[in-house]
């Protein structure tokens, strides 16, 4: 049933092609004030008659029609609407924008010599901070986990509520909605913007256009600047940016992200959703007959037609053909033509249609946010139900639970001390004058604590083996002390010396044992000791 496409009688009568916006404009010129009237009067259009043989009136052969390779964009002027889903979109918009702009300014005390910004990707310091969580470069696998959680969460929300991400929380939707709100406040609603766009170039028109784009640019600059603040301390960025002390890279990336916001939200708009975004191409695979999606109840709405306020709706559909459903659509589609890739599931058409149904005293939800199964049940007079837990839903929840559990367990049990050992490659070993054999190692200690640490280093596996560390312990001793600065990596050149008779051959297994002198935490690292053999 998901693949079913509904078509209106008007669309069926157009030789199988989709009605263009101009044709819909001619068919339904109603506004919020003329929703009861039907189509506006049109002047008759005088057309040249063609001869039966296909030639023109003068007998000349028809001229070939050159078809464009790409369809030109039809400008969309969405109408404002009030209702439940519009309020829901406003709530999502202001909450998400608030979190985005306020996020870099939240402070979090991590102790001395540590950044106090709660959300920060510190590229120079090679750290990522999320409140009490600190991620090091070698822990990039946590980013993989976050991406998996995001992807599976998107699949789950789509299977449950359709394209709720696209319609309510996608950044493109959020900023485009904000830009259209600014445009509406300055230039007026749909009809006023159309008149302004098609009208002559006047001082008032230039002023309104300049004001609109000026506000757009300010929002874009704030957006680009806020994004940079997630990588640089926010107060420092603001001071440096406006005093000219920021680096060229900071200015360049700020203006780059600002320009991206301005172009995508102010100019591209629905073109990004329809032609550039890959999600609409495969989101249909996440749907089933119980997914909540925006649909038109054709069985109830057809045959459609203009209606007056006191008209009886017996022997006709409830759709009064007012056109408000596609006039409020941010992508300009007509939901009455069936499910379409360009539909972002914002449900504004539901609010528009419900407002008209209430004026005529008809039941709401002619255009509804519901499942295909429930729509079919209503058509046949059967009870409806929501099946929230289905096999694919349980599969998504299971995958999500496993990934979240693994990440939480890993974060809760990860060690704050790590060791990395690299054996010298050339030479693998050195024979000393006293007959002993020496191996060289680069020994790195990762101290993830916010305080300086002192560790003891010893060996296991080779009897009588001794250690020496350049710059710390010149003589060969069984145990050496290694100091490491807070939240830092200590790198040491370590030499291990052993008697030849204590070696098992050309390669002998051994281990380094690193012990925290304060907490007693022990980390072992296995390696090999090479010798001449024999």
Mean pLDDT: 87
Radius of gyration: 35 Å
Helix percentage: 25-40%
Strand count, sense and barrel status of the largest sheet are:
6 strands, antiparallel
Shape: elongated
Number of strands: 15
Class of secondary structure makeup: alpha+beta
Topology:
Layout: H1 9-12, H2 21-27, H3 84-102, E1 119-122, E2 127-130, E3 133-135, H4 141-161, H5 164-169, H6 171-187, H7 190-198, H8 203-229, H9 234-243, H10 248-268, H11 270-276, H12 279-282, E4 293-296, H13 298-301, H14 324-327, H15 348-360, E5 367-370, H16 372-379, H17 391-413, E6 417-423, E7 430-431, E8 437-447, E9 453-460, E10 466-469, E11 473-477, E12 480-484, E13 488-498, E14 507-516, E15 522-530
Antiparallel strand pairs: 1-2, 2-3, 4-5, 6-8, 7-8, 8-13, 9-12, 9-14, 10-11, 10-13, 14-15
Helix pairs in contact: 3-6, 4-17, 6-8, 6-10, 8-10
Task: Give descriptors for this structure.
534 residues; Immunoglobulin-like; six-stranded antiparallel beta sheet; four-stranded antiparallel beta sheet; 17 helices; disordered N terminus
Written description of the protein model:
Strands 6, 7, 8, 10, 11 and 13 form a six-stranded antiparallel sheet that branches. Strands 12-9-14-15 form a four-stranded antiparallel sheet, with no helix packed on it. A three-stranded antiparallel sheet has the order 1-2-3, with no helix packed on it. Residues 1-18 and 25-52 have low confidence and may be disordered. Strand 7 and strand 8 form a beta hairpin. Helix 4 packs antiparallel against helix 17 and helix 8 crosses helix 10 (248-268). It folds into two domains: 20-49 and 75-414, no CATH class; 417-530, Immunoglobulins (Immunoglobulin-like). The protein has helices at residues 9-12, 21-27, 84-102, 141-161, 164-169, 171-187, 190-198, 203-229, 234-243, 248-268, 270-276, 279-282, 298-301, 324-327, 348-360, 372-379, 391-413, and strands spanning 119-122, 127-130, 133-135, 293-296, 367-370, 417-423, 430-431, 437-447, 453-460, 466-469, 473-477, 480-484, 488-498, 507-516, 522-530. The termini are far apart. The chain is elongated. With 534 residues, the protein is an alpha+beta fold.
